[in-house]
Structures are given as structure tokens and as C-alpha cells.
Amino acid sequence: MGQRIHFVVDPQGWCCMGLIVFVWLYNTIFIPKVILFPHYEEGNISVVAVLCYYFCSLFCIASLFRASVADPGKLPENPKIPITERERWELCYKCNLMRPKRSHHCSRCGHCVRRMDHHCPWINNCVGEDNHWLFLQLCFYTQILSSYTLILDFCHYYYFLPLKKENWDVFVFRHELALLRISAFMGLIILGGISRLFYTQLMGIFTDTTSIEKMSNCCEDISRPRKPWQQTFSEVFGTHWKILWFIPFRQRQPLRVPYQFANHV
């Protein structure tokens, strides 16, 4: 079953996402041209380092676009509620529609989302049951790409041999120091912010609570069995195969939840 396209009309979200795309384009264009390709041509680095950088960049932008246009779990206007699951549904007092428990109404998007974690302006979309795994991949690959970029910036000046530059009239070489300082500054800002967000997301999956539930403290009085971490991660990513948790080019399929946990999912 293909994943539905979900597009949010929000100028603020477009600006935030455009800023992320700009940072990605900046590093994808200038870092290889200033560092990777010249040092590869002079034998300072191998082709593996170049390919790894582009793979990280590809996985990062793929998870960004997929998380931004994927349906996070929007509930239909007239949902069909199975008789056996009616006790696990409740009425939303904002849109006056029935929804499963642990759903939340997003005021920015104007509808309810299954197991909504939060609305993220950086992807211009909600993070919910159906795209949470893509958001985690985005955080993961953004950290790798930012760290890789910072390492290359550092090695270019303090570890690699000096380049035998012949094209001093080229823009990137004439403004090399300024370009790499901008790259390092953006890398530090993004790495710091994303690392904190990624840690928060991981802790939420380990404890099987969303960001909204943590802020509202609605799960403190719920007595539910603690799931193994493999189970909670498998439910988010839609597969027990851990290698597939890192691949954004696939379709997520909801897992069958064991009976003892069914009342709390």
C-alpha cells in the first residue's frame, strides 16, 4: 500500500523548510568542491570518503522530503470504527470527530493525527504515527552529515597536506576561508539542535510516550506494561528488521501489536 501525500499550506513552515534545504545545498555544493574533490585528486583521501559524503547527503534530503510530504496519520472525516475497538476511541472536542486514543488535534493543520508527537515547522508537517520513522531518520542523517562536514572542515586546515591550487581565480578558492567558516558555523548550530531533539525522540520511544503526552503529563496515571525497546522501535519503523530502520526508500507497514499491549497503542 502506497503512502498518501500530505501537503500543509503554511508560509512559516515553507520558510523553515527552505532554510534547511539551503543549508543542505550549501554543504552539498561547496564542501565537495573545496575539500573533497581537490584532496581526492591529490591523493589525500580515497573515493570512499567522497561516496560516503554523497550517500549521507542523499539519505538526509530523501528523509527530509519524505517526512514533509508523508501523511502523518490524518484521520478521515467519517472513520469506520470496528466494534471490537470502539472502547479505544474518543471524541475530539475541537473537530467533533471520533479518534483513537493517543491521537491529538493539531491546531496548525486543523485535523487530528494518530499518535501525534508534535508539529514540526522544519518539515512543515506533523510528526505522527505514519511519518515518525522518517523524522527519526532525518535527525539521524542530519547529525551524521553535520559531523562529517565539521570533520572535513577541521582536517582541511589542520590535518590534510596543503593543496597545490592552480585555479586561484575560481570563486570557491578565492573565498575558501569565508565559505568554510560559514559551513562550520551552520554545522555547529544544526548539530547542537538536532542532537538534543534526537535524544528527546529516542527517550520518548524507549518510554513509549509522545512529546505531547510528556508536556501534558497524561501518562503518569496510566498503568500499562512496559514494552521492550525492540518492540517500540519496531512499531515506529514498521518492521522488525533493524537494517531497514535506516533506509528511507521504502514503505512502512503497521505491525500487528501483541494482545497485552493492544489497549495502549
From TrEMBL:
<keyword id="KW-0812">Transmembrane</keyword>
<keyword id="KW-1133">Transmembrane helix</keyword>
<feature type="domain" description="Palmitoyltransferase DHHC">
    <location>
        <begin position="87"/>
        <end position="216"/>
    </location>
</feature>
<feature type="transmembrane region" description="Helical">
    <location>
        <begin position="138"/>
        <end position="159"/>
    </location>
</feature>
<protein>
    <recommendedName>
        <fullName>Palmitoyltransferase</fullName>
        <ecNumber>2.3.1.225</ecNumber>
    </recommendedName>
</protein>
<feature type="transmembrane region" description="Helical">
    <location>
        <begin position="179"/>
        <end position="199"/>
    </location>
</feature>
<dbReference type="InterPro" id="IPR039859">
    <property type="entry name" value="PFA4/ZDH16/20/ERF2-like"/>
</dbReference>
<feature type="transmembrane region" description="Helical">
    <location>
        <begin position="12"/>
        <end position="31"/>
    </location>
</feature>
<dbReference type="GO" id="GO:0016020">
    <property type="term" value="C:membrane"/>
</dbReference>
<keyword id="KW-0472">Membrane</keyword>
<keyword id="KW-0012">Acyltransferase</keyword>
<dbReference type="Pfam" id="PF01529">
    <property type="entry name" value="DHHC"/>
</dbReference>
<dbReference type="InterPro" id="IPR001594">
    <property type="entry name" value="Palmitoyltrfase_DHHC"/>
</dbReference>
<dbReference type="GO" id="GO:0005783">
    <property type="term" value="C:endoplasmic reticulum"/>
</dbReference>
<dbReference type="GO" id="GO:0005794">
    <property type="term" value="C:Golgi apparatus"/>
</dbReference>
<comment type="similarity">
    <text>Belongs to the DHHC palmitoyltransferase family.</text>
</comment>
<feature type="transmembrane region" description="Helical">
    <location>
        <begin position="43"/>
        <end position="65"/>
    </location>
</feature>
<keyword id="KW-0808">Transferase</keyword>
<dbReference type="GO" id="GO:0006612">
    <property type="term" value="P:protein targeting to membrane"/>
</dbReference>
<dbReference type="GO" id="GO:0019706">
    <property type="term" value="F:protein-cysteine S-palmitoyltransferase activity"/>
</dbReference>
